[in-house]
Specification:
With about 300 residues, this protein is an alpha+beta fold. It folds into four domains: about 5-65, no CATH class; about 70-145, GMP Synthetase, Chain A, domain 3, CATH 3.30.300; about 155-210, no CATH class; about 220-280, Roll (SH3 type barrels), CATH 2.30.30.140. It is built from nine helices and 13 strands. The protein has helices spanning about 45-55, 70-95, 125-135, 150-155, 165-170, 180-185, 190-195, 210-215, 290-295, and strands spanning about 5, 10-15, 30-35, 35-45, 60-65, 100-105, 115-120, 140-145, 225-230, 230-240, 245-250, 255-260, 265. The strands form three sheets. It has a five-stranded mixed β-barrel. It has a five-stranded antiparallel β-sheet with strand order 12-11-10-9-13, with no helix packed on it. It has a three-stranded mixed β-sheet with strand order 6-7-8, sandwiched between helices. Strand 1 and strand 2 (about 10-15) form a beta hairpin.
């Protein structure tokens, strides 16, 4: 059997386990990482994941020991100390008037090092803050680590509008660039509540099915094109890619939905006015700052 742990980077690492170690699924273990000794839960890995690892070869981590009852008491105390340290660091930063939003504080198990994760819109000179922290946490190495807002969400965790855990908390390791064109091409309303995640950036999942929508668009007449329908000439004002239908405005002003097989494209200009504000892609009653939604600056640093 093979076991793994999921680190704060949301990456599963296989474990180097000695033969006589009796590790069980879901058990807390002490693991040696690049930060020191940290506590994680062990997960039993299925054969499919094992075959995937043979291709990507993630870095294995060494098991120090299985957590004892005494270790677990220490770990619970550590979690309480991390909360206290989090608020203390935040208060010190506020006194220095530093624009920093702290996400989490994490001790190594031996409490010789503590890492503070934070987001910030611009580069922060935290040298004075570091001096304050050194005075507050004596004989402890201090690591102030700047992360992006997408990284922050993957640490905090939660559920998206789909009802499932955030992709960045489950399987997403690399954040691809996302822009509003992806939403427009898929017929998704350009409203922040529908196309942004908890991080305030555009939903990563807008990338997932984009190719399928583009392939579907090649088989359907575009918005504004003239078509011949069973009821006469009309102009396309909306395309439904999932249903593979088009909404057409006829010469008498009526709006009707047609299957692709029921219409034919025609050459030339059709003298029918269409109002694309009726299309769900546009919300005129809501002012949308497109630039802020697409801003990838400090979105993800990967420095976790």
């Amino acid at each position: 059997m093979k076991f793994a742990v999921r680190t704060i980077k949301n990456t599963f690492h296989p474990l180097k386990v000695v033969q006589n170690a009796n590790i069980k699924h879901g058990q807390y273990i002490l693991v040696k990482t690049d930060k020191g000794e940290e506590v994680f839960r062990a997960f039993l890995v299925n054969s499919l994941i094992q075959r995937t690892w043979e291709k990507y070869q993630p870095e294995p981590l060494s098991v120090v020991r299985i957590m004892t009852d005494e270790d677990m008491k220490t770990y619970e105390e550590q979690k309480m100390l991390e909360v206290q340290a989090f608020y203390k660091c935040r208060d010190l930063a506020q006194k220095r008037n530093l624009v920093m939003k702290f996400t989490q504080a994490r001790y190594t198990f031996d409490r010789k090092k503590i890492t503070f994760y934070y987001t910030a819109p611009e580069r922060v000179d935290f040298r004075e803050l570091l001096k304050d922290l050194t005075q507050e946490f004596k004989k402890v190495r201090i690591d102030l680590r700047h992360i992006g807002v997408r990284d922050e969400t993957s640490i905090i965790q939660g559920q998206g509008i789909c009802g499932q855990d955030y992709c960045c908390c489950r399987f997403l390791k690399k954040f691809e660039q996302v822009n509003t064109k992806l939403a427009k091409d898929q017929g998704i309303p350009i409203t922040p509540g529908k196309i942004t995640g908890a991080c305030g950036r555009l939903l990563c999942c807008l990338n997932y099915e984009y190719k399928n929508y583009i392939d579907a668009a090649k088989t359907l007449p575009p918005v504004g094109s003239g078509v011949m329908t069973p009821e006469g000439i009309g102009k396309v004002f909306m395309v439904n890619f999932l249903k593979k239908t088009v909404n057409v405005k006829l010469e008498d002003g009526k709006l009707k939905e047609y299957q692709k097989s029921d219409i034919e494209m025609i050459d030339g200009e059709v003298n029918i006015d269409i109002d694309i504000s009726n299309n769900l892609n546009y919300q005129e009653d809501e002012v949308v700052d497109i630039k802020s939604l697409e801003d990838e600056k400090n979105s993800s640093t990967g420095d976790i």
